[in-house]
Design goal:
Blueprint (H helix, E strand, L loop, with lengths): L2 H51 L23 E4 L5 H15 L7 E5 L5
Parallel strand pairs: 1-2
Length: 117
Amino acid sequence: MNLGDRLLLGINTTITAMLIVFVVLIFLGYVIKIISLFVEKMNLNSHKSDEVDNKSEAPVLKDEFIATQTTGSVCGELKLEAELNDEEAAAILAVIAHELRRPLNEVKIKSIKLINR
C-alpha cells in the first residue's frame, strides 16, 4: 500500500465518520422534538383536568402560560400620590405584575396611596 492509497483511505474514513456523526445528530434532534411535543401535550392535558376540577371554586387568576419579559428594559404606567422614590415604585409595580402573571408593559397602576396606621 503506497502513500496515495493510505491518503485516500484516510480521507474516506474521515468522510464516513463525519457522515455518521451528522446523521446521528439529526436523528437525536428529531427525537428531542418528538419528546418535547409529547411532554407539551401531557402538560396541556393536566392543565385541562385541573381546570375541570377547579370549576366549583371561584378562580382568582387564570393559570395560563404567559410569556413574560425577564431581561432588558421594562415599562408600566404609575401615578404616585405618595412620597415614594423610583426604586420603591418599581418594586411595587414588579410585585404586582408578578402576582398577576402579566408582563410589566400590560400592568397599569392608577395610584399608590400611603396608608398611615
